[in-house]
């Protein structure tokens, strides 16, 4: 009974803390919405339950929210106003633990466009000849020489010990019928 009462008290205390935390987050989120010059806000690292409460508050308020950080202790929530929703590049930067720098992102985008244009120009200049870019024989010439394959092809002969055995190599020159008749005769003698 005593332990049950203590458990109930703890649960009620936890519930109160969650409700208080939610109220605090609702206040912070509404302040954030009213702050005109602030497109996004980063919250302090918090535990899983607190993060889920904050995500819920943000969703109710019509905001976009994401969690970032690798381990449980350093994971934090970032809330974005709908009109400043983050691009995939921005999200990737936060996931890597970097600060988002629009100027650097623009530079990266320009470099990617340049690379794509160069690739297109190479494609338009005509197709590359079919086949591998280099000859594997050149790679192994130091090992096999240049005429090893031709020499090997010239000396190709059938292996006499493989496949059909010529009559000259057979130990037993009798036909099957002769061999069977001999076996039958030996059986008759035994009986």
Task: Describe, in plain words, how this protein is organized in 3D.
Residues 97-139 are annotated as: Disordered. This is SPAG7 protein. GO terms for molecular function: nucleic acid binding. Residues 19-82 form the R3H domain. Residues 97-113 have a biased composition (Basic and acidic residues). The chain is mainly alpha-helical. It folds into 2 domains: 1-100, Ribosomal Protein S8, Chain: A, domain 1 (2-Layer Sandwich); 136-177, no CATH class. Helix content is 57%, strand content 7%. It is built from 7 helices and 3 strands; from the N terminus they run αβαββααααα. The protein has helices at 2-34, 48-60, 88-95, 102-124, 136-144, 148-154, 176-190, and strands spanning 40-42, 64-68, 76-80. A 3-stranded antiparallel sheet has the order 1-3-2, covered by helices on one side. α1 (2-34) crosses α2 (48-60). The longest helix has 33 residues, at 2-34. It is elongated. It starts with a helix and ends with a helix. 5% of the residues are buried. The model has no long low-confidence stretch (mean pLDDT 81).
- The helix/strand series, from N terminus to C terminus, equals HEHEEHHHHH
Instruction: Report the mean per-residue pLDDT as an integer.
Output: 81
Q: Could you describe the largest sheet, including whether it forms a barrel?
A: 3 strands, antiparallel
Rg from Cα: 41 Å
Top-tier CATH class of the largest domain: Alpha Beta
**Low-pLDDT residue spans:** none
Estimated helix fraction: 55-70%
Q: Tell me the domain tally.
A: 2
Q: What strand line-up does the widest sheet have? A: 1-3-2
Number of helical regions: 7
CATH fold node name of the largest domain: Ribosomal Protein S8, Chain: A, domain 1
Please report which band the strand proportion falls in: under 5%, 5-15%, 15-25%, 25-35%, 35-45% or over 45%: 5-15%
Q: Superfamily at the CATH H level of the largest domain? A: R3H-like domain
Structure summary, number of beta strands? 3
GO molecular function: nucleic acid binding
InterPro entries: R3H_dom, R3H_dom_sf, R3H_sperm-antigen, SPAG7
Protein name: SPAG7 protein
Pfam families: R3H (PF01424)
